[in-house]
Amino acid sequence: xxxxxxxxxxxxxxxxxxxxxxxxxxxxxxxxxxxxxxxxxxxxxxxxxxxxxxxxxxxxxxxxxxxxxxxxxxxxxxxxxxxxxxxxxxxxxxxxxxxxxxxxxxxxxxxxxxxxxxxxxxxxxxxxxxxxxxxxxxxxxxxxxxxxxxxxxxxxxxxxxxxxxxxxxxxxxxxxxxxxxxxxxxxxxxxxxxxxxxxxxxxxxxxxxxxxxxxxxxxxxxxxxxxxxxxxxxxxxxxxxxxxxxxxxxxxxxxxxxxxxxxxxxxxxxxxxxxxxxxxxxxxxxxxxxxxxxxxxxxxxxxxxxxxxxxxxxxxxxxxxxxxxxxxxxxxxxxxxxxxxxxxxxxxxxxxxxxxxxxxxxxxxxxxxxxxxxx
Length: 375
What we know:
Elements: E1 3-7, E2 18-25, H1 26-30, H2 36-47, H3 64-75, H4 99-114, H5 118-122, E3 127-137, E4 141-142, E5 150-164, E6 167-174, E7 177-184, E8 188-192, E9 195-199, H6 216-223, E10 227-234, E11 237-245, H7 248-254, E12 259-271, E13 277-288, E14 297-313, E15 316-332, E16 336-352, H8 366-374
Antiparallel strand pairs: 1-2, 3-5, 3-16, 4-16, 5-6, 6-7, 7-8, 8-9, 10-11, 11-12, 12-13, 13-14, 14-15, 15-16
Pfam family, one: DUF620
InterPro entries: DUF620 (IPR006873)
């Protein structure tokens, strides 16, 4: 499946082609209409951040706003911990660590070596990636039974910029709907075409997508403080399991008066044969408190990403494809519902040390800025 970066100029036959703000898969471009003129009309609508497709439901969502909310949850989730890049070396003395902690540190060292080594990783100051996604979802179903994604695939693409873990910017377009997210080093935020910018509570945090084999530095820094809890085979690959619990003070900073994050746990599965990350998993439990009464509702979000297709880019071993499965489980006194969304993703282009990438690239949207100034 090809990725399209240019759109033909139908107004002038000899005119320059239009550079797409977000590269999209050829399949998505084809779905925009049966002829070139209709595709161009829909493409213009898409560039204005409006839906260029029919109004049928996507990912079994009941409305456009619900679909956009699902896109943010699945396409732009954050890792709960801040990451310091200078911490992915064995700086702390192993004699002061437990066996589980020291084992985890050695596994991380093997991972660093497998992804290119300290010299190659430390040479990276910024990165750029273009990829494409296919998503499929289930309805919100009642009961404890397992749920399965079904229906049509939603097709889209994304572009991702990063200068360090706290400076990043993502634009994701799926089935004509656009979601943006980013961090300027002070606040992480997200927005969509129909909703204003929303600031995430707590200090800025990195995008989860970086940890799906795309940024080995961030992954190594994250799991250096983990513990090794055992072994497990993933797709016939024997793996060590590293587990990391988010600190209570970090969870508290991300909570609010109505939402309490009870826990957010991360697991990394590292191949014993290659040293590479082959699966990333995290589980988050949030308690929603009603304004009146004691009937709290719990939301449990489980995300599992299988990471594969590693290739060297400028001496750094980067994953180029994978599959992510997200399960949303809502339960409480009068609630017991589940929904599952599957995303298949592929990286089409990666580059490091981008010239001219300034901090202005990562500025939050204007409406978010005004909201902060008013506070």
